[in-house]
Amino acid sequence: MTRAGGTGRVVYPGPHASPVVGGPVIYRKSPRELEAMRRGAAILVRTLDRLERAIRPGVTTSDLDRLAYDAITEAGASPSFKGYRGFPASICTSPNEVIVHGIPDETALKEGDIISLDVGVLYEGLHTDSAWTFPVGDIDDDAARLLAVTEQALEEAIARCEPGNRVGDIGAAVEHVVTAAGFGLVREYVGHGVGRRLHEDPQIPNYGPPGRREALRPGMTLAIEPMVNLGAGATRALDDGWTVVTADGSLSAHFEHTVAITEDGHEVLTRR
Ligand code: MG
Ligand code: MG
């Protein structure tokens, strides 16, 4: 959950730009930090699994929020989002036309809805971050294809994660899959480094061009998170200060993994 700077364009200079004060500071994690992130990610995965089993018509997003809080805290961890810049809940719950940052409430899920759940876990001082969009009962073919394409975009992006590639290669992979499917790509919200803080550098846009931006190096830990709309990619923020919806009211999906760059490729810490 992070917004691109300024007018929706990412504000950090590319790797070939002159050094500027306040440019990206990328924390590469030690083996010990990565071990802690693996343990936190395991708690996150178990939480998402429990949430998935609880999803059915009639369940409210507040019910899911309580379940997540219990799952995370019973494991000795903390929900990263609770209180983050004042966010009032443990997880983000974003149904149907909500893209990201939905606030849990007493609205009940209905058959045919889709629901995006975004979970952050703080464990042993390190954050991991993952999101998934689930069907509620039977969903129509368009919604099912939206979920499949967004998950595929995430997987194609992860496949580009190896030393020597660049952040722009990740975004280009997402953009290629989403554009080929004819769906709307959300550009105003981006992925991010994650670990010592919930949101670290670099920002990770879901678009290219390839071969640009920061080089991927072992020890970097990245939250890669395509957000894809059935209609156009344009967004609108609600006046609760958090909820982001599709401007045209179409459905939106969000899939996110925390990925570590390794010496010879990558490791998906939040693999389900
Ligand atoms: Mg994130
Ligand atoms: Mg997230």
Please describe the biggest sheet, giving its number of strands, its sense, and whether it closes into a barrel. Answer: 5 strands, antiparallel
CATH class: Alpha Beta
Bound molecules: magnesium ion
**Separation of the first and last Cα atoms:** 20 Å
The total beta strand count reads 15
Structural class per helix/strand content? Answer: alpha+beta
Structurally, how many domains make up the residues?
1
Mean pLDDT: 93
The portion of residues forming beta strands comes to 15-25%
CATH homologous superfamily (4th level) name: Creatinase/methionine aminopeptidase superfamily
Radius of gyration: 17 Å
Structure annotation, total helices:
4
CATH topology: Creatine Amidinohydrolase
**Low-confidence parts lasting 5 or more residues at pLDDT below 50?**
6-20
Going by CATH, the architecture would be: Alpha-Beta Complex
- Morphology: globular
Q: How would you explain this protein's 3D organization?
A:
The structure is a single chain. This protein is of the alpha+beta class and 272 residues long. The chain has a single domain (2-268), classed as Creatine Amidinohydrolase (Alpha-Beta Complex). The protein contains 4 helices and 15 strands. A 5-stranded antiparallel sheet has the order 8-7-9-14-15. Strands 1, 2, 4 and 5 form a 4-stranded antiparallel sheet that branches. β14 and β15 form a beta hairpin. α1 (31-54) runs antiparallel to α2 and α3 runs antiparallel to α4 (167-181). The protein is globular. It starts with 30 loop residues before the first helix and ends with a strand. Residues 6-20 have low confidence and may be disordered. Residues 1, 118, 120, 129, 131, 256 line the site of one magnesium ion (MG).
